[in-house]
Amino acid sequence: MLDLLRKNKIVAGILAIFRIYLGYQFLHAGFGKIVGGSFDTTGFLQGAIASSTGEHPAVQGWWALFLENVALPNSGLFTFLVQWGELLVGIALILGLFTNFAVLMGMLMNFSFLFSGTVSTNAQMVLLGIFVVVAGENSGRYGLDRYAIPYFRKLLKNGTKKNKKGSLAA
Fold first, then answer.
1. What is the per-residue pLDDT across 53-70, written as a single tens digit (0 to 9) for each?
2. What pTM was computed for the model?
3. CA dihedral defined by 13, 18, 21, 24, rounded to 10 degrees?
4. CA-to-CA distance for 142 and 150, rounded, in angstroms?
């Protein structure tokens, strides 16, 4: 099953559809937040913190502590990270460039939203993201990763050879 996900060209096409769908979702969300000009995480963070109390809290106490002590005092930074993070993850996924890193960063955001009590499409996006991550390079086969990954491997290999030669001569 793992070989099918990681090596099959037909599966790579299906993964490209997943990847582009996820990319569109992130791009659309990030672009809307940037262009809209009124996006601010403060209200969202305060709402998530408020949802951590009561008989059946939607937000776990440990996450509420993080939001209250780290995210809320730095809401300007988190506003910037969310809107630009969504936009950049979306672009990378649509182009199929650094696919695994992009989908992992997208999943980090989705899990953060889920931990904060927001359901929406986050769980679905995490599920699709898992397929993309597990498939590895096959997810970017029909994207720019097809060219970027071999280039960076070659670059890394040449850099390692130079370091080994340099250390032998020293």
1. 999 999 999 999 999 999
2. 0.88
3. -90
4. 14
